[in-house]
Design brief:
Blueprint (H helix, E strand, L loop, with lengths): L7 E5 L8 E4 L4 E2 L10 E2 L9 E5 L8 E4 L3 E7 L2 E10 L7 E5 L8 E4 L4 E2 L8 E2 L9 E4 L8 E3 L5 H40 L1
């Protein structure tokens, strides 16, 4: 009654006159133990839509072994074969303001942790970065850093250029004004001298 050929199934049962005859499993099916069954087990399908792929292909002697796709982790395994994943889920993506404390593996999810104060991360780094200290770069703080963005720095908005410009304009006006005064003074004096010559 039992087919002792691994990878086979019962074709005909034994009688007083003959022993049990076996038939090999067809492609897409397997039998990994002696059996009295007339049908082999169907090979497992590793569904990519469920985050799975083939790790070991099915043979007539053993079932397919599935593993998670890259970026997925196993959430449920075959009770008879812990290495055979039957359900997977995509790794958690860390949010901006968090860093990847532990990268996800085939059997564990990604672990995220919030950045501490004065640090930032866009959620894709394995550590948080310190905010740029604008003062130490002799720059002015334009926008304060957040948990997800760095501080923005810029050149100091100085009034020196304005002051220098104003002084130059003042000096030019002063010189121009003085020149005009001298010009009118000399002209007036010249006119007076001309008048005196005419009177003589």
């Amino acid at each position: 009654m039992i087919c002792f050929v691994t990878g086979g199934r019962v074709k005909t049962d034994c009688t007083k006159f003959r022993s049990t005859s076996c038939l090999s499993c067809i492609d897409g099916s397997f039998m990994d133990e002696p059996t009295a069954r007339r049908q082999c087990f169907l090979c497992t399908n590793c569904d990519s839509g469920s985050g799975l792929r083939i790790k070991t292909s099915c043979t007539t002697l053993s079932n397919t072994v599935c593993e998670p796709l890259d970026g997925f982790y196993c959430t449920d395994s075959d009770k008879d074969n812990k290495h055979n994943c039957i359900a997977a889920q995509e790794h958690t993506s860390c949010e901006p303001g968090q860093y990847i404390r532990h990268k996800g593996t085939a059997f564990t999810d990604t672990e995220c942790t919030d950045c501490s104060s004065d640090t930032f991360s866009d959620g894709t780094s394995t550590s948080c970065q310190s905010h740029t200290k604008c003062e130490s770069l002799n720059l002015q703080l334009i926008k304060a850093g957040t948990a997800s963005t760095d501080a923005e720095c810029g050149e100091h908005s100085s009034n020196t250029a304005v002051i220098v410009g104003a002084v130059i304009v003042f000096v030019v006006l002063l010189i121009t004004g003085a020149s005009l005064l001298v010009f009118f003074y000399l002209r007036k004096k010249s006119s007076q001298n001309s008048g005196k010559i005419c009177m003589n």
